[in-house]
Write a structure and sequence with these properties.
Length: about 450
């Protein structure tokens, strides 16, 4: 399968012409691009891939809203929408190792030294009050300073100068851990950011797993072929050869700079905090490269991140409860799980599996298999009618969660977590029956004959 972004866009144009819109009129990078995406989603009820050819102040066209459709993401994984979970689980279980190549389109243009100028990129401000222009579609590639393991992650970058940005390293996650090691030695951490990749690479990057799992293998599993990597110009970091753009850099030791405020996936704009500093060493890109932006906190962002999260959580719950049915992440920090509970206590085990398997998970609701977790009214009904709060709610104090959760003290992610066991006790079979109709009556009713 082609692993470059232009080939994927060509498939969208050919197979779903309504889902690719090119805008040629000039757009203002100060909020207009992101506001247009959200207004098209809310008012026109459409979620096309959008290519803004003319964004004031930059020669690079802006590609956005790429991920705002589940079926487009399924297409990127070469799977029908209902088989996305299985495809993702297979990529986690049978990763495909990457392959190094000599060169690639990401090297068409090489800018180093005085030629680096981040102000030539589209200076996109996403939400009102943001601290500056952000690069939101940057995928970091870095090597563990202690081993041959690699890590990939999305990290938001705020442009702070011609060749500097700040970076948000999620506290407690893998790139943060690499950086702790480098900084404790007084060393910079070499890193490179790919901006503008095939959506299968983006989905693989967001895999949640152990620090010993290589996201690049999951990318290969989703692409059905090894991810092609090429060496950076200024370091030994390996990056996707077919990316639109690569920013080669280091994260400096013992340097911090104010970052934010920034409107995040939580729906909140969190204030400025001191963050690590990125020193850019080179920018390389495809001839005629698009600048990829993710509209943070809206469907473009949320659909992309929940598919990998749900796959990991499904895997974790299934390790404890073989009869798990569905795992869904409907909103930030939240997980709904439906299980066919064969033994008393399995709901609690499901709860512990979820809260233990994902840093961000803070609230989990476990229901029986007769509840549709995609219908929030049914989940609420189960909580209301099958749950005794003094018996069925578990609270865990003093755990580690998201540093973007505005309800945690000091906004640092030191948080309580909770689980709601909304399964029927002692079992669904033994519980008060749901009301119903005799099947011969139900089947005998001809709705069309009754209605005028
Ligand atoms: Mn990792």
């Amino acid at each position: 399968m082609a692993q470059d972004l232009p080939s994927y866009l060509e498939r969208v144009r050919t197979e779903r012409p309504d889902e690719f819109v090119t805008v040629s009129r000039e757009m203002d990078p100060g909020h207009e691009v992101t506001a247009a995406v959200v207004k098209i989603e809310k008012e026109a009820r459409r979620r096309p891939v959008l290519l803004f050819e003319n964004v004031r102040g930059s020669d690079y066209p802006v590609l956005t809203n790429l991920h705002a459709s589940r079926s487009r993401l399924a297409m990127a994984m070469n799977a029908p929408p209902r088989e996305m979970l299985q495809k993702y689980l297979k990529a986690m279980e049978e990763p495909v190792a990457p392959r190094e190549v000599n060169t690639g389109p990401c090297k068409d243009v090489v800018l180093k030294g005085a030629d680096i100028d981040l102000s030539r990129l589209p200076q996109l401000e996403h939400h009102q009050g943001d601290g500056g222009a952000y690069i939101t579609a940057a995928i970091s590639f870095a090597k563990d300073p202690n081993s041959d393991m690699w890590n990939c992650a999305y990290n938001r970058l705020m442009i702070t100068g011609r060749d500097t940005t700040s970076i948000h390293l999620t506290l407690g996650k893998h790139l943060w851990e690499y950086y702790q090691v480098a900084e404790s030695r007084g060393e910079a951490l070499p890193v490179a950011f790919a901006i503008g990749v095939h959506p299968a690479i983006a989905l693989g990057c967001l895999a949640i797993g152990s620090i010993d799992e290589d996201e690049r293998g999951i990318m290969g599993g989703l692409l059905d072929e090894p991810l092609e990597l090429v060496r950076c110009e200024t370091s030994d970091v390996l990056v996707p050869a077919q990316a639109e753009m690569i920013v080669e850099a280091e994260i400096l030791p013992r340097a911090r700079i104010a970052e934010g405020p920034f409107g995040e996936f939580t729906g909140y704009s969190l204030g400025a905090r001191d963050r690590e500093v990125v020193q850019v060493k080179a920018v390389t890109h495809r001839e005629g490269a698009m600048f990829h932006d993710i509209t943070v906190g809206h469907l473009d962002h949320m659909l992309l991140s929940t598919i990998p999260m749900e796959a990991n959580l499904y895997r974790a719950v299934r390790a404890m409860i073989p009869s798990v049915r569905v795992v869904r992440v409907p909103s930030p920090f939240t997980c709904f799980v439906s299980i066919e509970q064969r033994l008393e206590g399995q709901a609690k085990n499901a709860m512990m599996a979820v809260l233990g398997a994902d840093l961000y998970m803070k609230r989990v609701v476990v229901v029986d298999h007769d509840i549709d977790v995609f219908d929030e009214r049914e989940v609420n009904w189960a909580i209301a009618t099958r749950c005794q709060p003094d018996r069925d709610i578990v609270v865990i104090s003093g755990a580690r969660g998201s540093d973007l959760d505005p309800s945690t003290a000091g906004n640092d992610g030191f948080t309580a977590k909770w689980g709601v066991d909304a399964t029927a006790k002692p079992s669904l079979d033994a519980f008060t029956p749901r009301h119903s109709f005799p099947s011969e009556v139900w089947d005998g009713i001809d709705v069309e004959a009754l209605l005028p």
